[in-house]
Amino acid sequence: MKIFNTPNFNFVRWRWQAIALSLIIVLAGAAMVYRHGLPLGVEFEGGSMVVLRFEQPPDLQQIRNALATGMPGGDDAIVQSYGETSQHQVMVRVSEVGAESGGELSRAANLVIDTLQKANVGKFTEQSREVVGPVVGQQLKRQGTLATILALAGILVYIGLRFQFSFALGAVAATIHDLLVTLAFLVFFGYDITLNVIAAILTITGYSVNDTIVVFDRVRENMRSMRRDNLEHVVNVAVNQTLARTIITAGTTLLSVVALYLFGGEALRGFAFTMIVGIISGTYSTIFIAAAIAIMLQRGKPMKGQSAAAATPAERTPRRRARAS
Amino acid sequence: MNKNLRWKVITILAVLVIFFGIGVYPILAQRYSLPAPGWMQAKQLKLGLDLKGGVHLVLRVHTDDALRITTTTTSEQLREALRNANVNIGAITVQSPLAFRVEGVPQDKDAEFRSLADQEAATNYERSSGVGGSYDFTMKQNIERNLREQTVVQALDTIDRRVNDLGVAEPTIARHGNQGDQILVQMPGVTEVARAKEIIRNTAILELKLVEAGPAPSREALLQSRNGVLPPDMEVVTGAAQPNSGETGTVYFLVRKVAAVTGRDLRGAQPSMDENGRPAVSFTLNADGSRKFAAVTSANIGRALAIILDNRVQSYPTIEGRISNEGRISGNFTPQETADLSLILRSGALPASMSYLEERVIGPSLGADSIRSGVIASLAGLAFVIVFMLIYYKLSGINAIVAMVMNLIILIGMMAYLGSTMTLPGIAGFILTMGMGVDSNVLIFERIKEELAAQRGVRNAVNAGFSRVFLTLLDTHVASLIAAAFLFQFGTGPIRGFATTLSIGLLTNLFTSIFVSKTLFELILSRRPATAQQPQTLSI
Q1: Considering CB atoms only, which of A130, A203, A256 is closest to B434?
Q2: Same-domain pairing of B84 and B230
Q3: Of the residues A35, A276, B200, B212, which has the maximum number of CB atoms within 10 A of its CB?
């Protein structure tokens, strides 16, 4: 069975339109972040979050009212249902924490519990609690940013060693593209950026590069056999040759992540959503963006197998180490 | 089947059996109460706090406290030495945790002061050259660093003793963060969070000090007889009035700054009753403490001794005779409080105060929910992928499925063997490994299809498919491993679990997708050799 019979789409022709589309998405996301700020989870922003399980189906509005009247700062509390509705779970998040001195840290969380216990909102038990002071929040934020940047730099160096440098830049540009698009969608759909989401984002970097490497590997292989053709054509052939693989693997990974999104429970929903968007964006960027950027960066330089071939015969250069300059 | 191929198949089966035994079987054995030897259960896959339920705390040790105590002690020792040598100076003030200042050193006593100061403080402090009889003493940098380090290590030990005394199974107590002054405490299965937090954080600095004056209803009344001036070697502490003493509310005491006995001199502590049958804590002293206590009590019969816990007077019994090795703390305690206090005193005082920076509590039922949904998601993902592969690659799809399932079994076994922890994001990593494992097979199969289309014969096509894709696979896996490595560096707990699962999954995937899948193809082709009438075919 085959999804394409010898596909021959001219993807490279559409590169400007593709770049424009991506830019629109990223800019729209940036505009939303500019207006509302990046929606950070408790672990990065600091704050208190409790998950409560009610005996009866809870009335969220009633809980909101109880908090607004019962505790200072309670009108800013975020109250959402959590997990499956049959479990009657409610998540309450407030931005306050107690002072980071002594045993005061969980004061705000205790206050939420006390306030709701006094109010007439039904019986509940505390399921989980997460209280993060500003020190740890700052620490995690810095570490998260650093880890993402270092991972990207590490991948850039690795691909730089294995391929031509313009390809490495193309791959990293495609990866950054996926990160930005994923962030934009997280903002559009109102997901908080949590530790799990960061984990998903870093996985996307690995995954997105994966995809791109497969295409670039093909481009490199084709450069040897198609010396007379121009770069656009060589790249386009490579994208078409790997198209079935690109779509199928994205499809299978997507299947497993969709299973995670549907059945993995509330705690992993943000992770699964990030992965879904990242995988789709990764496939799109592999087909339209990565090669386009590599072509742009490569233009003007002599191609291996054309002018460079005169100086160093391609057959003599070791197969994998071959690099054009 | 040729010999080479037979060995490959045996290797694969052996690997499968070993990792199934280490990883999957113990889980099944526990769930369905099958027989399993002890060593097998001991190596079981560990569950993280987010799946098992429990408490995760991050504390900061205020190392400045320990520095301040050292600086104060040194300055007091210098004061004492100067007094004994009859060198009268203006004042000694502690400026910061790291520095104190001596002012008003008379010109004619300057040399004598310097020699005394060098004797008392030169090992740990730098002395300024001294302008107009005023000297600054600043703690040396290496001493400061060592002291901070020592303080955190001591706090770590103390917390470790307290948590173990609480009876928590498999706690994690470790340094945390890159500042050097944070401690991570994880206690699986603990539900009495408030009590555990209080026990961990309680500094429990116990001091027994001679009462010079008091109790008095106010600070002013206390110092009245000394014309309102606090003597330099004494301090004022407060406490609750004892019943039947005629005083009410908070009362004030004037006590010696230097303690007769401290918590360091304790050998043990246990809950008991006082003479009125109220809950109290009895303690026994070690040899050194007994000697000191005997000397102080025999010399001060008839005077009051304040028992001070964390700077608050708990009781102030009158010394009725020479006591050497035991004492009792009575106060307004509940039985639970005396049990906790004994535990804390036994474990030793914390060298500095601490505060909480982060607190996570995961209820056991929430953890169980996460495991259930994780298992369902894994099975659903598996089903999706299996159906797809069978439809798209027909019989060859079975190869990919066998390789993938084997990948998951090795992954679980490897994690159990290495003692890695499975966390909630780890489950996500597990499911992702499934998707990525198929990715490698798809890459290979698509290549085989291309080679078949080029009419190169089945055997050649299979060989070319694997060999041409090998370096691509290596590149993609290394790139993903780089991302996973930084992820591991970045996080503690759950995220680390994800990075571990993903990394091991990537490595095992290289093995299954290249070695196992290829061997399966060879096995199939060796069963159906090509004949003259019928060329070899492959269902792909």
Answers
A1: A256
A2: no
A3: B200
Contact A202 B487 (CB under 8 A): yes
Is residue B345 within 8 Å of B281, Cβ to Cβ?
yes
Residue B26's domain comprises: 3-50+365-527
The C-alpha atoms of residue A173 and residue A211 are separated, in whole angstroms, by: 13
Q: Is A6 a member of any domain?
A: no
Is B539 inside any structural domain?
no
pLDDT at B162 (0 to 100): 87
What pLDDT digit, counting tens, does each position of B153-176 carry?
989 988 998 888 888 888 889 888
| Chain A residues 272-291 within an 8 A CB cutoff of chain B | 272, 275
From the list B201, B435, B476, which residue is nearest A257 (CB)?
Answer: B435
Question: Using the beta-carbon criterion (under 8 Å), do A203 and B483 form an inter-chain contact?
Answer: yes
Close Cβ partners of A14 (under 8 Å, ≥ 6 residues apart): A288
* A73 DSSP 8-state letter: T
Question: Which pLDDT tens digit goes with each residue over B331-377?
Answer: 778 888 888 888 888 887 788 888 899 998 988 888 888 888 888 98
Domain with A298 in it: 12-38+137-311
Q: Provide the domain count of chain B.
A: 3
What pLDDT does A16 receive?
85
Which of A109, A132, A155 represents a domain boundary (last residue)?
A132
Asked whether residue A274 carries a pLDDT value surpassing 70, the answer given is yes
**A158 and A71 together in one domain:** no
Is residue A305's pLDDT more than 60? no
Report the CATH number at residue A221.
1.20.1640.10
Asked whether residue A128 falls in the same domain as residue A18, the answer is no
3-state secondary structure B355-423: EEEEEEEECHHHHHHHHHHHHHHHHHHHHHHHHHHHHHHHHHHHHHHHHHHHHHHHHHHHHHHHCCEEC
CB proximity A76 to B under 8 Å? no
The residue in chain A having the minimum alpha-carbon distance to the alpha carbon of residue B436 is A253
Mean pLDDT, residues B440-448 taken together: 87
Shared-domain flag, residues B214 and B348: yes
pLDDT given at position B313? 87
Residue in B closest to A89 by C-alpha: B366
Average pLDDT over residues A250-278: 89
- Find residues 475-494 of chain B whose CB sits inside 8 Å of chain A: 475-476, 478-487, 489-491, 494
Across the interface, which of B377, B391, B483 has its CB nearest the CB of A202? B483
Q: Angle B364-418/A243-263 helices, nearest 10 degrees?
A: 140
pLDDT tens, B228-252?
A: 788 877 889 988 776 666 666 788 9
Domain count, chain A: 2
> What's chain B's average pLDDT?
85
Q: What is the dihedral of CA A288, A290, A296, A301, to 10 degrees?
A: -130
Q: Which residue of B65, B340, B359, B408 to mutate against A (max A Cβ within 10 Å)?
A: B359
Put simply, whether A75 touches B (Cβ < 8 Å) is: no
**Beta pairing, strands B182-188 & B250-256:** unpaired
Q: What is the pLDDT of residue A25?
A: 92
User: How do residues B250-264 score in pLDDT, each as one tens digit?
Assistant: 889 998 887 888 877
A127 closest CB neighbour out of B58, B178, B365: B365
SS3 B233: coil
Put simply, whether the predicted model's pTM sits higher than 0.80 gets the answer no
**pLDDT at residue number B407:** 92
| Partner B, chain A 11-50, Cβ-Cβ below 8 Å | none
Whether the Cβ atoms of residue A36 and residue A184 lie closer than 8 Å to each other: no
